[in-house]
Q: What sequence folds into this?
């Protein structure tokens, strides 16, 4: 009977353990990524009352007689069956939709594993486990290129990143050109001029061509000139680039000869950068690189302070050394302690309206002073493009000439004029009242026929991402022939040369047979650092000519610069950054780990697991390599089965009650035994 008591005690104790497991499962019924546990029992050693005997010729064998000594917890197993994903809408949340696989997170040098994909980004862009701050592991991309063969690292999203622009190299047309187009008589012609005016033309319009030229120096800067009619220009160009009708408005010094610093005139009273007013002993001061404009203020360095003396008027006499020259300056109203020996004395001085001196810019010198000269009409030149010396004097007229040795190339373009005015566009009115576009370089007459014109505006990007919208025209010219045309002109700051291509279609199949490509030549005339001469190819090969409407559209391969806008994580674990220019780029990929025996992992709290002696080593790879499926924007729910847990709770309760009855009955039997003595 004493054995029964202890056997029942083991039953009570171990059923309590199972109830603890059930209670923990139910407590974590809503814990993200929680994996339920189950307790299993096994009997313990038995007391053998008699052993078994083998059969003989006379007697059969007998079985052993054993009394069990109770039970024990055989195992507490973890069920790694995947829980259902619950949508959150948070783009950094991830749910593992497979039974296998765990995320990898780190705290310092400690590595943990988890099914909880509740991730977020910290202030530095680290992808972390929400609540703990543990850093999610994976592979960071380099310029959008992922390498998942190396070791894992902390995943980090560079929220200050920028995507460089891509210059447009190809414009691709697709769609249909209507085979049904017919020519209609012209009843009216209106000419639109560059000065904003327009006029109706009676009878016919016949333009004149006037040449203008774009000069390009070695620096890439372009200069626009328009000679008198009939003048020819050699290549390389020789002649005047800036004439004496222009006044030098500002000078940007890009390089200086340290042994012979350029000098400009300033107002003699200047503001010290560290406080106070400085009296300049001379209006003429040596200057370094920078931009100087008449009437504008600029910082100039007066040298390193070598001495400071309080003067009789309560100010300071500060002595500086500037390239070996010692000069003393009077400083009034200086804050106490603002200046010390060894500091630099810098002032904000105003460029004087009258410049008594001038700067000589000679590109042939050993260490030449070079500058960008900007004139009152907005034009500018780079002195490094010219081998002959340029005398720069702010506020005065200037002349800049080119010689053959400068190797300044020249390219010509034609401007269409009518009545001695530059023409920007032609509007044609047809006999049915419709209006269509005409071309400034073509001749038109009322009563003649013209086909409809279709305009497709394509935005191209220069090498620095500047956007320029250029119209491309498509017009039928006859049976199964069309033309694609770009008019010369300036569009959003770029100069475009005239370009035209004839398209020939098969009248039976509607397929394009000739004229698949042509090029557009553009020139960026302003100094923004972009490549200033580019060729953009136009691909027409995907156009067809069928009945129906004209639906021609364009696509391009260039884009502007972009800055970080947002990020998403895909079902493959790849982190994709979206930029303000609409482009996307891979930023990294989340690593996942597999274990031969995930049930052998040790729980660490906080939904974390650690490697144990029986879990096996982690097999780290991508979701695809590990055969793991991810659900973005969702979290994995607990896999606790409430119905099963309640059923287990009932059977556990009954087991506990039954074992308690064993103790009660055994106690009563012992009491009866004791009472026998009475």
A:
């Amino acid at each position: 009977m004493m054995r029964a008591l202890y056997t029942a005690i083991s039953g009570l104790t171990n059923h309590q353990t199972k109830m603890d497991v059930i209670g923990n499962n139910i407590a974590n019924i809503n814990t993200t990524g929680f994996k339920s546990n189950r307790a299993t029992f096994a009997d313990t050693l038995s007391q053998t009352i008699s052993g078994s005997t083998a059969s003989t010729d006379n007697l059969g064998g007998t079985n052993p007689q054993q009394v069990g000594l109770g039970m024990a917890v055989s195992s507490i197993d973890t069920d790694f069956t995947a829980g259902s994903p619950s949508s959150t809408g948070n783009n950094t949340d991830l749910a593992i939709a497979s039974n296998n696989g765990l995320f990898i997170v780190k705290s310092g040098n400690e590595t943990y594993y988890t099914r909880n994909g509740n991730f977020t980004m910290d202030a530095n862009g680290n992808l972390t486990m929400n609540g703990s701050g543990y850093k999610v592991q994976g592979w960071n991309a380099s310029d959008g290129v992922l390498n998942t063969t190396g070791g894992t690292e902390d995943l980090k999203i560079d929220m200050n990143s920028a995507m460089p622009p891509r210059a447009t190299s190809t414009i691709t047309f697709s769609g249909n050109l209507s085979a049904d187009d017919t020519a209609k008589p012209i009843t009216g012609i209106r000419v639109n001029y560059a000065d904003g005016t327009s006029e109706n033309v009676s009878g016919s319009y016949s333009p004149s061509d006037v040449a203008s030229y774009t000069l390009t120096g070695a620096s890439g800067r372009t200069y626009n000139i328009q000679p008198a009619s009939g003048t020819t220009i050699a290549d390389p160009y020789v002649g005047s680039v800036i004439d004496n009708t222009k006044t030098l408005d500002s000078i940007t010094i890009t390089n200086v000869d340290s042994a012979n610093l350029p000098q400009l005139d300033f107002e003699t009273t200047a503001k010290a950068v560290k406080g106070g007013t400085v009296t300049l002993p001379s209006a003429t001061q040596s200057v370094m690189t920078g931009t100087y404009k008449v009437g504008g203020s600029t910082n100039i360095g007066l040298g390193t302070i070598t001495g400071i003396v309080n003067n009789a008027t309560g100010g300071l006499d500060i002595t500086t050394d500037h390239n070996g020259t010692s000069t003393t300056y009077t400083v009034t109203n200086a804050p106490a302690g603002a200046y010390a020996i060894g500091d630099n004395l810098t002032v904000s001085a105003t460029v004087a309206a009258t410049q008594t001196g001038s700067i000589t810019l000679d590109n042939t010198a050993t260490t030449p002073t070079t500058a960008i000269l900007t004139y009152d009409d907005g034009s500018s030149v780079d002195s490094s493009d010219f081998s002959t010396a340029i005398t720069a004097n702010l506020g005065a007229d200037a002349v800049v000439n080119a010689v053959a040795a400068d190797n300044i190339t020249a390219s010509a373009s034609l401007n269409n004029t009518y009545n001695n005015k530059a023409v920007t566009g032609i509007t044609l009115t047809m006999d049915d009242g419709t209006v269509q576009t005409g071309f400034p370089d073509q001749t038109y007459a009322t009563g003649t026929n013209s086909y409809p014109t279709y305009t497709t505006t394509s935005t191209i990007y220069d090498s620095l991402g500047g956007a320029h919208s250029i119209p491309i025209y498509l017009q039928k010219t006859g049976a199964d022939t069309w033309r694609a045309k770009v008019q010369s002109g300036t569009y959003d700051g770029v100069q475009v040369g005239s370009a035209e291509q004839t398209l020939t279609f098969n009248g039976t199949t509607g397929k394009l047979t000739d004229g698949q490509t042509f090029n557009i030549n553009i020139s960026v005339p302003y100094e923004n650092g972009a490549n200033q001469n580019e060729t953009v190819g136009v691909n027409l090969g995907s156009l067809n000519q069928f009945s129906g409407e004209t639906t021609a559209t364009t696509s391009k391969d260039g884009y502007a610069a972009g800055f970080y806008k947002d990020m998403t994580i895909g079902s493959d674990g790849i982190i994709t950054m979206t930029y303000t220019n609409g482009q996307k780029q891979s930023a990294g990929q989340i690593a996942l780990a597999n274990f031969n025996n995930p049930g052998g992992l040790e729980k660490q709290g906080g939904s974390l697991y650690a490697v144990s002696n029986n879990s096996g080593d982690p097999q780290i790879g991508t979701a695809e390599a590990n055969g793991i499926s991810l659900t973005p924007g969702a979290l994995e729910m607990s896999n606790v089965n409430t119905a099963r847990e309640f059923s287990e709770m009932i059977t556990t309760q009954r087991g506990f009650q039954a074992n308690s009855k064993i103790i009660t009955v055994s106690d009563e039997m012992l009491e009866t035994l004791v009472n026998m003595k009475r």
